[in-house]
Design brief:
The chain is mainly beta. It contains 4 helices and 44 strands. It is globular. It holds the Pfam family CBM9_1.
């Protein structure tokens, strides 16, 4: 009876009003604490004391086994927080010197701040006992946490015989908030993470696990009467020095090294035009990547690999551009000469826009069975706009527009989207998009030239029927002008013990979103599924278990079946922070055509059946050790030869700290495919990284990435290299005074071996250094 009355009450209120109805007042104290990890200034005695004693994960609101307090006050410019984290066994505290945003597995204290108190975004600030910072932004619309956001704030941690203390000073100017009102209200949650045999999430608030919006449940705090954002200006000049050597090793003869020396100066400016509007500008930026991406295996995969954005100009307020579909993926902009971005939020209105040129044009050509990235040696102009309005009733309406244009093509996308959460348990998502794309004849000719396609694994061209077959995009590029549409619909119902969902995704064959990451078109896909959850008690050996299942079916616009799939998985979390999952899947899917007489715009091949079993586990048995293992065995389509083979895939990972400063990260991927009674290929990919972290500011890292791919030429339709080996190394020194005042110096090289080379031969080597300094005015 009581439960039904409570449910009825919850359904009758807006989802944003579930937090504490009466805000807690934070004291104003005109006294700055010294950030040294010692809570001995008089100001801490007058600060607001907040008790952190409620375990919210993996359990729902149970008593904390440790005592934690936060002391909070503000002085009009800075939010000060002091944490007292007591521990009866301080020798078990997990804390290591790591790079920024890399200590998520350690003991942590911190807080989340919804600075507009509208349940849309939350800043996250976490600190390990040695003072290593982690910050990110949690986006309620996309359910994504972006660790790429970096604020400039101070923290120091000290471990002692009773546990540890942490002092934090967060300048209010790093937050976006409405300073048009005198007393400001922000939602906050104060947290401690205690990783032992279980990783406990300990909070100052209770959380309803039946409501998947945790930001919505954060209590409110008011104060900040003297807080003004002001017209903050950050000027960040940078200098890059580099020496790059390359040589041609394509063929039996190896050319001489060609050397290019490079010295570039650049300038970034960030200006708070008003308290709610921020302008970013960059001139001649160095967008070369400082650190190597995590290696990915691309064999037997027809879709382009996704790599996250890592560049500061595009990352700042990147969540203001986010929508359900990935329509703005700024890594498509490779080498701009300039960029300008404006973002803002006020009274429920959120807007963002940027323009940037690019000295080259990377275009993702999607199909229904594959995609390919085509690089054109010409400049392009790029722009994006995003607007969203958030109603108090749980309804959000948004719109996105993007445009790319070069001499030979242009692409424009318009989209509208909405999220509606009528109750704490239900959510509806919808997004509709339309694109206009125009290709010049020169653009099409660049992809297909003469009697042969320019590069393998790119585009089959209808204008040239003599192009040899390749493994790339099956969608034929046949029109100079294209108009495409697409939409996405989803409904989800979430309870504490179960959830159910259904979604429908449609994209026609002519849809293009060249500034985003839309790698598949010409399909209509329906998915439905659900999950049941079990919660263990503290006396059990396990704490959570999940049973998940879904079913989906996909057709192309010609109503040919592309894929029909059913999969289920069971997972359980247990001691030593362990997680185990077993999954079973059955899939009917299409392969790729090799019979050129059957090649047409919309046609696909016959269905193949795939059946497989997967297993994943990870655990953290002691401080500084993480180990995981993923395995898959079953049938898989051999995409290069249009048949079904037997696949075995295994990926072990081991991360280990040797002392407080030295870390080893080992990751290996092995995959083998057999068909028609013999091997098709065997692939090995190793990613090894050694890091010595001198302190919270600097580290030295060696990364070695090695690829070894062996193919059985007799078991392929087309000619392939029987072997391909690649070795890439990088030695990097980094010093970060803060996220914008940095110094990097390093060396990298890359080489490969194929059937024409007897050993791995270097084709590129680089020496580089970069220095940037942030002036905050």
């Amino acid at each position: 009876m009581y439960k039904s009355m409570l449910s009825a009450a919850l359904l009758s209120v807006p989802f944003t009003s579930l937090a504490t109805s009466q805000p807690v007042t934070l004291p104003f104290i005109a006294e700055q604490a010294t950030i040294d990890g010692q809570l001995n200034e008089p100001s801490w005695q007058r600060a607001k004391k907040i008790t952190i004693d409620n375990v919210t994960w993996p359990y729902e609101n149970s008593k904390s086994p440790v005592t934690t307090h936060a002391y909070v006050y503000e002085d009009g410019e800075t939010l000060f927080i002091g944490f007292e984290a007591n521990d009866p066994n301080p020798e078990l505290i997990r804390a290591f010197y790591r790079d920024r945003d890399a200590a998520w597995d350690d003991d942590l204290v911190g807080l989340k701040i919804d600075s507009y108190n509208n349940s849309q975004l939350a800043y996250q600030f976490f600190i390990n006992p040695l003072g290593v910072q982690q910050d990110s932004i949690e986006n309620e619309l996309t359910k994504h946490e972006s660790s790429s956001w970096d604020g400039i704030w101070d923290s120091v941690g000290v471990i002692h015989d009773k546990g540890y203390t942490v002092e934090v000073a967060i300048p209010l100017r790093v937050l976006n908030f409405d300073d048009s009102v005198a007393s400001k209200t922000m939602a906050m949650e104060f947290l401690r993470f205690l990783p032992r045999s279980e990783r406990l999430r300990i909070s100052n608030m209770q959380i309803d696990h039946g409501n998947n919006c945790w930001i919505c449940q954060m209590p409110s705090y008011q104060g900040f009467e003297q807080a003004k954002q002001g017209n903050n200006v950050a000027i960040i000049p940078s200098v890059v020095l580099g020496k790059n050597e390359t040589r041609d090793i394509d063929g039996a003869q190896v050319a001489d090294w060609e050397t290019e020396n490079n010295t570039e100066a650049s300038l970034d400016v960030k200006w708070g035009i008003t308290p709610d509007i921020t302008l970013n500008a960059t001139i001649n930026p160095d967008f070369s990547q400082v650190e190597a991406d995590v290696a990915q295996l691309s064999v037997n995969n027809n879709f382009s690999l996704f790599f996250p954005e890592k560049r500061a100009f595009f990352l700042d307020n990147a969540d203001y551009f986010a929508s359900t579909l990935n329509l703005i993926h700024t890594r498509n902009i490779a080498q701009p000469d300039y960029g300008t971005k404006i973002t803002g939020s006020k009274n429920g209105h959120t807007f963002a826009g940027f323009i940037a040129n690019d000295t080259q044009t990377n275009v993702l050509i999607p199909g229904n069975l594959g995609s390919s990235l085509v690089a054109l040696d010409e400049k392009s102009e790029n722009g994006a706009l995003r607007y969203r309005y958030d109603f108090e009733s749980g309804l959000s309406l948004g719109s996105t527009a993007t445009h790319r244009q070069s001499d030979d093509y242009k692409n424009t996308v318009y989209s509208i989207d909405s999220k509606y959460k009528p109750t704490v348990n239900d959510v509806f998502l919808v997004q509709v998009l339309k694109s206009q794309t125009q290709y010049s004849q020169d653009f099409i000719d660049e992809l297909c030239d003469g009697d042969n396609c320019l590069q393998p694994e790119q585009v089959i061209c209808e204008l040239n029927s003599d192009c040899d077959y390749n493994e790339g995009v099956l969608r034929v590029l046949s029109k100079e002008q294209q108009s495409g549409t697409g939409y996405y619909l989803k409904y989800q119902h979430d309870e504490k013990y179960w959830r159910a969902f259904a979604d429908y995704n449609y994209r026609d064959a002519d849809l293009r979103a060249d500034l985003g990451f839309i790698s598949q078109v010409d399909f209509k896909k329906f998915t439905t599924g659900g999950e049941y959850r079990w919660y263990g008690d503290k006396g059990n050996w396990w704490n959570r278990a999940n049973l998940y299942a879904d079913w989906d079916i996909t057709h192309n616009e010609n109503n040919e079946l592309l894929e029909k799939e059913a999969q289920t998985s069971f997972s359980v979390s247990g001691p030593l922070q362990s997680f185990f999952e077993v999954s079973v899947e059955h899939r009917n899917r299409t392969g790729l055509r090799h019979d050129k007489s059957r090649l047409d715009i919309d046609g696909n091949t016959d269905l193949f059946s795939e059946n497989g079993v997967g297993f994943y586990s990870d655990f953290k048995p002691k401080a500084g050790v993480f180990a995981s293992l993923y395995m898959y065995t079953g049938n898989a389509v051999d995409l290069a030869n249009n048949r079904v083979g037997d696949k075995f895939h295994i990926r072990p990972v081991l991360n280990m700290n040797l002392g407080k400063h030295f870390e080893v990260r080992l990751r290996h991927t092995y995959e083998q495919l057999e068909a028609d009674g013999s091997e098709v290929f065997t692939a090995n990919l190793s990613d090894v990284r050694f890091t010595y972290q001198f302190n919270v500011n600097s580290f030295l890292r060696l990364a070695v990435i090695y690829t070894d791919l062996e193919r059985n030429q007799a078991n392929y339709i087309d000619d392939v290299d029987s072997q391909y080996k690649n070795l890439a190394t990088q030695l990097l020194y980094s010093y970060k005074l803060n996220p914008q005042t940095v110094f990097f110096a390093g060396y990298s090289d890359n080489g490969y071996q194929d059937d024409e080379l007897s050993s791995i031969t270097k084709e590129q080597r680089t020496l580089f250094a970069k220095f940037s300094y942030a002036w905050l005015l």
